[in-house]
């Protein structure tokens, strides 16, 4: 239902698929949360459809059994966790490198 609202109302049907999903998780939900501190959008952000995602991350998450496409679908939160893990493995842990 929310996906349809974003596609039709917010995006005016001008964008769909993974690009729209990326806009929702990387722009719209964070901006909504920043605009109103009383909104707790973490669960929605975590479970929203994964947007543009490197295939290697999708494959890795599937191999370790986090998602199965049926009862445990691919979601943004799993992708963000995999990105964070990849970053830590590549650049080391401890201090922030941002």
Features:
single chain, 98 residues, mainly alpha
Brief overview:
With 98 residues, the chain is mainly α. The chain is 60% helix and 0% strand.
Task: Report what the structure shows.
The chain is mainly alpha-helical and 98 residues long. It has five helices and no strands. α4 (55-63) crosses α5 (76-91). The model has no long low-confidence stretch (mean pLDDT 88).
Hey, roughly how much beta strand do the residues contain? under 5%
Tell me the Rg in angstroms.
Answer: 15 Å
- What is the global morphology? globular
In which range does the helix fraction lie?
55-70%
Tally of alpha and pi helices: 5
Main sheet makeup: none
Encode the helix/strand succession as letters.
HHHHH
Poorly predicted runs of 5 or more residues: none
Structural class: mainly alpha
Instruction: Compute the average pLDDT.
Output: 88
Count the strands?
Answer: 0
Alpha-carbon distance between the two ends: 35 Å
